[in-house]
Amino acid sequence: MAFSNDFIQARSFPAPGWVWPFANGSWKAGEAESGWNPSQVGARRFSLPSLRAKETEATLTGEAIPVIVMVEDNVADVRLVREALDEHAVLCELEVISDGEEAIAFFDSVDASGGACPQLVILDLNLPKRSGADVLRHLRASKGCGGIPIIVMSSSDNQKDRDTAAALGASKYVRKPSRLDEFMKLGELFRELLARPK
Known about the structure:
Blueprint: E1 7-8, H1 31-34, E2 44-47, H2 52-61, E3 67-71, H3 75-87, E4 93-97, H4 100-113, E5 120-123, H5 132-140, E6 150-154, H6 159-167, E7 172-175, H7 180-195
Parallel strand pairs: 1-7, 3-4, 3-5, 5-6, 6-7
Antiparallel strand pairs: 2-4
């Protein structure tokens, strides 16, 4: 699937009442290698279950595991992103932050510590405490992480939201798909962005 346009259209996704499998969440995997300090904010890190063998191999060979930060308060959408990454065999750690204020604090702490930046950010616009637009503006001003790819993934198809995201420096704008198969295809976009030369 080719993603040639900077802004991708899909339909809004009604959040199903799925249970989020927290048993797969872990702060232990890859913390030392990545330079992240999860105690700084209330983020959660997840390893994709089907990729654990590859993760072990990468750790043994000294290969860095890419980190994706997802700023999203809807647990169903987080689960779908995890499944899309798994579907496309994307080897990564998924760091989840559930509100805009914590996301800003998280990136401030990375800047302050000189820690490693994530390779990709997936950002919702409608967040508690601080908006996605505030997070995007703040992240683009970051001295360390300002140049990383940022996908705005929103239920909004409002042109004003698209224009605002573009003006603030979003790499892509994706409207949350309404169909499961369309959502799974986003895994290919995530993989392509992670594979781009830095």
